[in-house]
Amino acid sequence: MTASEAPAAAGDAAVKTVLGEERFAAVQQAKLLVVGAGGIGCELLKNLVLTGFRDIEVVDLDTIDVSNLNRQFLFRRAHVDRPKSVVAAEAVKQFRPDAKILSHHGNVKDSQFGLEFVSKFDVVVNALDNLEARRHVNRLCLAAERPLLEAGSTGHLGQVTVIRKGETECFECQAKPSQKVYPFCTIRSTPEKPVHCLTWAKNLFDLCFGPEDESNLLADLAAEMRQFQSQEAVDGEDVGKRIFKNLFEDDIKKQARLEDLWSEARPAPAPLGFEEALTKAERTADAEDKLETQKVPSVAQDAQGFVASVAKMYSERRELIGQSSFSKDDPVSMDFVHCAANLRMQNYRIARLSRWDAQSIAGSIIPAVASTNAIVAGLEVVQLLHVLQSKGKTMRDGRARTVWVRYPEPSRKKILQPSSLQAPNPDCFVCGSRTARVAVKSLVDCKIAAFAKGCIQGQLGAVRPALYANGSCIFDPEYPEPGPDAEEEGLHPEWSLTEWGLGSGSLLQVEDEGQGWSINLVLREEPDLDEQHFPNGFKVEAGAGAGEEAAKDMAEKKRKADAEAAEVNAAKKATLDANTVAVD
Ligand SMILES: Nc1ncnc2c1ncn2[C@@H]1O[C@H](COP(=O)(O)OP(=O)(O)OP(=O)(O)O)[C@@H](O)[C@H]1O
Ligand SMILES: [Zn+2]
Question: pTM value?
Fold first, then answer.
């Protein structure tokens, strides 16, 4: 035995004593997929190898950022910018050099990590931080019939649960609170809170520097912004000042003139010129010991910061203009959004924010707590042992539980609250009825490609959905754009739902090969659909009742088909009779 093998082997003896021969053998044979190598993932990988697991693959899409080092303890300063999955695998291999730990630097939603890939593993263990990726892995595990350990943490709250097809609730059996949607006019004309201005500023960044996107809340300003940006020999500072004048001065003057909008309780906004902003250099009183990023800047600093961030996009990232999108972790886009939001707050008399607070709200960040992640990762391993022990039993009859973590003010004096695993929800549109109802504001105006992107991908979480109606493919993810290639396949991404012959009550099938998942959709036209809350023009009503409606629709189709068949038979019979008569 070499010196480096000694710690793992010595640890194994102790673990074997605790787990017993049989369970330890199951641990050593299990093949695991870990998704995510961040806060929970680092703890989890370390726990797994120290428990004796030695056949693990890990997927993570990210590289290491300096801000990860305070809690993702497998990473050191020298690792910054390297892939998390690779460094995490290297680090835990040092604890157990005999382990086979394969790393994949990539997005778990990529096709290489599809059904075939997931089917190789005995159990999948999530350590993710976003709903889309969790929904995707949930669907893959249901399709591949692999148990999934799901975990998450926010601040001092955490949760671990076990998901198994047909035995427990899946990740999507209960609707998750979706991201708050603010009424359109609040964002565009009457902001009242910092978050309204930050949402506006994020949309502005994407509008100015991202790809064309009809769903951007400021899409109607696109032509104007492009005009500022497309002058010959564009000078970034000049562009910044033009945008400033347009949005914080001229546009606000126009808004202020819309008298119906304003009252004593809601006074009209105040325009702000660039030169005027520079005179407002005073700062609000802040505690001395605060970091600069925790102090509210002056209006002059916001104005200068805004123009400087635009200038930086032109001087340092010109080639990325048209392809960028806001990220709270990207300092230039965060500068832009912080300053733009603060200037709009100044217009609307809302108290401006420090960079720190702006970043928390813009990125909906609740600071991660290392100890919660450690508890959650530990609980995942405990539940994993229960899963491995559940052979022959259904998951709900075994020892696996959902466990909630809550401290420092635990409920009923317990930091850990276990609860039994719930049965699947028969109305779940993912693992149950597989049916959802979709209300569409206008079937004539809704193009099939926009419907596939906004509704099926955006709201139902599909990755590469193909759509079928009446047995024919009406949208193929291989041909998302109109053109000769699509036409050759009989596809017209630019056609509306009406042009495809769909009406209220029509049934659509969605197949997502990327997730091994399918769903039926019942369409309904709802001209009164509230544009403020559903700016894309559709609303998904997954679950209850939709299944029955689809069944009714199917029954109706079957009845029609039977009636047609009966008619054909009757006609055939009549012909036969006639023939018979004739022949006779
Ligand atoms: N679709 C995905 N495919 C692969 N890995 C993913 C995917 N989505 C998220 N992840 C990874 O899951 C991990 C989640 O870890 P964590 O919650 O600690 O996030 P973080 O980005 O490292 O930290 P923070 O968000 O607090 O800055 C991240 O490393 C992230 O890269
Ligand atoms: Zn479900």
Answer: 0.74
